[in-house]
Design a protein that fits this description.
The complex is a heterodimer of chains A (about 220) and B (about 375).
Chain A: H1 3-6, H2 12-39, H3 46-77, H4 82-110, H5 121-141, H6 148-173, H7 179-207
Chain B: H1 17-44, H2 47-56, H3 60-74, H4 77-89, H5 95-108, H6 111-118, H7 124-155, H8 157-170, H9 180-197, H10 202-246, H11 249-263, H12 266-279, H13 284-297, H14 299-307, H15 312-332, H16 336-355, H17 360-379
Classes of the chains: A mainly alpha (about 220), B mainly alpha (about 375).
């Protein structure tokens, strides 16, 4: 381990950026697996469950690693990087929740819910694809070279879809549909909304960890 | 995404690395000149003052307490050990009398990490780990003194071994040795001496030279540490991350040694570990070997100082510092039972400290200031 002192290398916080990128990839993988189980008509879902749980364990381990790296960074460098250190911790906490929500979607399938063959299957698949694409876009957005405008546009698109998902949940709450139809869909929409909220929140805190003080200037 | 971009360390980053490295070399030169000026200053003191200095540490326990107190007051064992090297190099102190002072400096240096641990005192779950990580260094140094000081007084094992080694390195004792570094620092040292001599004379000349020399040593070491920390911070971070992944042991000791040699301060190395222990990402057992490595690494300062000294005894006392820490490590590290002693003592003290948090500051003041000060007053 002493060799790591003599070995040259990048800024140690770049390792944190890499962890965040890997976490986002894992979140998308977990989400796609959960959704595909829900959308397909297959019954043998155990191998998918194993894969989702191991991916979730990887996500949790990455979150721990980032928190540890940030503590080490702060201990060595003091407070000079406090903003980016804090934003990294906030972002990985949100991404860890995305991993949990992807697992929740799989749990719906494990309870026997299947959207395959239902009249709204295409619409649900389209919504899921959109969320999956947002997770893919977020990978590119956490790069330090991406212009702020792109990130802000991303957050705006996520917010619009979240509002739409909220309306869908409200409609289902007041609908006359039977519970076995309305409840899984309401839960699915709710998970999609939470995933979008967390991924856009992660991008947002990486962009701007706290409200700029200038907003409160006289 | 540009907004969260790493906020650059305004005080550190604007200086390019090659320039900072050059500054460090210049400061190192200033440090060595300071040692040479100190030797000259001590030589210029009247015989009475020299005898007073000698008498103040002729009792080994008084010497030990002087070492603790001086190090606590300057917050740097590097400054105090470099000063001892200067005193021995000028012939005012014998190696035998300087050994307890060096041991005391080793104990005194641990106050910095203990003070760092106090930053966590209001959060008990953090404070336990932080205080144990800080005091494991205290206990190792205390236990090593408990074992090595009587042994040294009875047999002279450290001083004799160091003199034997120094003879092999620089030649016979009692004569001056031809250090190339000494030659490099002679001219500016003589210039300072001549300048001060043109204004004052006698004992006052010695006092002024000593104050100037100590200021040069203190400033040089402080800025060497500051600049080297900025230069190697990313490397320290990678080493610590690797340490957390792989655990302590000999690798941890090597990390402690290398980092301390790089930043010329064991306090920096051990203080970095305190917040990590507070956060629970490193255990006291893994902090321990790093502290031992830091103890060994910090002895390079005295060895560097000896390079600028006139007499081979200066090299010998610097080697005593290294041998003392190596012996302590050999006693309290390889055997698991012995290794556990300082760790358990630190953990128990930390448990007690968590229960009586208001007493912790009292413990620090009494251990590092009151007892050494009383020792110096009563035993000199």
């Amino acid at each position: 381990m002493v060799l790591s002192f003599f070995r040259g290398g990048d800024d140690p916080l770049e390792a944190v950026d890499l962890e965040i990128t890997t976490m986002l990839g894992d979140c998308r993988h977990s989400f796609d697996l959960g959704v595909s189980t829900l959308m397909s008509g297959g019954d043998d879902i155990d191998p998918v469950g194993v894969e989702i749980r191991s991916t979730d364990a990887r996500i949790n381990a990455a979150e721990e690693a980032v928190r540890r790296d940030v503590i080490v960074h702060s201990a060595v460098h003091g407070g000079s990087d406090v903003a980016s250190a804090m934003s990294s911790v906030l972002a990985v906490k949100k991404l860890e929740r995305v991993g949990d929500q992807a697992k929740n979607i799989f749990d719906l399938a494990a309870e026997g819910v299947r959207f395959a063959g239902s009249p709204d299957a295409d619409e649900l698949r389209e919504l899921a694809n959109e969320v999956s694409n947002r997770l893919g876009e977020a990978v590119a957005l956490v790069s330090p070279d991406v212009p702020d405008n792109d990130a802000q546009a991303f957050v705006r698109r996520c917010t619009e879809r979240m509002d739409d998902l909220d309306r869908r949940v409200n409609r289902l709450i007041h609908s006359e549909e039977p519970a076995h139809h309305a409840v899984p869909r309401a839960m699915f929409f709710r998970y999609l909304k939470r995933i979008l909220a967390n991924v856009s929140g992660a991008v947002e805190v990486l962009l701007q960890p706290v409200e700029p003080a200038t907003d409160r200037d006289e | 995404m540009s907004a969260p971009a790493r906020t650059e360390d305004a005080s550190a980053r604007p200086i390019p690395a090659p320039l900072r490295a050059s500054i460090v070399l210049a400061l190192l030169y200033l440090f060595l000149v300071g040692i040479s000026v100190l030797e000259g200053g001590i030589a210029s003191l009247g015989e009475d003052v020299q005898k007073g200095l000698y008498d103040s540490v002729s009792n080994p326990l008084a010497g030990l307490f002087v070492g603790i107190l001086a190090t606590v007051l300057v917050q740097s064992s590097s400054v105090s050990t470099a000063t001892v090297v200067g005193l021995v190099g000028s012939g005012v102190l014998s190696i035998d009398d300087a050994v307890p002072v060096i041991m005391g400096a080793n104990i005194g240096t641990t106050v910095t990490s203990t003070l760092a641990a106090l930053g966590h005192v209001r959060r008990p779950h953090e404070f336990r780990g932080a205080f144990a990580a800080a005091t494991v260094h205290d206990f190792f140094n205390l236990l090593t003194v408990v074992v090595m000081l009587p042994l040294e007084l009875a047999t002279g094992v450290l001083s004799n071994s160091a003199e034997w080694l120094a003879e092999r390195l620089v030649g016979q004792g009692g004569a001056s040795f031809e250090s190339p570094i000494k030659k490099l620092v002679e001219r500016p040292s003589d210039a300072v001496h001549d300048l001060v001599e043109s204004m004052v004379s006698g004992t006052l000349l010695g006092v002024v030279l000593m104050v100037l020399a100590l200021a040069m040593i203190f400033i040089a070491l402080a800025f060497i540490t500051k600049n080297m920390r900025a230069l190697v911070a990313d490397r320290i971070e990678r080493s610590v991350t690797s340490l957390l992944e792989k655990g302590g042991g000999l690798g941890g000791m090597a990390v402690g040694m290398v980092v301390t040699i790089a930043v010329q301060s064991s306090s920096i190395t051990t203080s970095v570990l305190v917040p990590l222990a507070a956060a629970g990402v490193i255990s006291v057992r893994n902090v321990y070997p790093v502290a031992l490595g830091a103890n060994i690494g910090t002895t390079t300062t005295a060895l560097l100082a000896a390079m600028a000294a006139t007499r081979p005894e200066a090299v010998a006392i610097a080697l005593v510092h290294t041998l003392f820490n190596l012996c302590g490590t050999l006693i309290f590290f390889p055997v698991p039972f012995m290794r556990a002693i300082p760790v358990r003592m630190a953990e128990r003290l930390a448990d007690a400290a968590v229960r009586h948090r208001t007493m912790v500051m009292v413990y620090v003041v009494i251990s590092f200031l009151v007892i050494p000060a009383l020792g110096v007053i009563l035993l000199r």
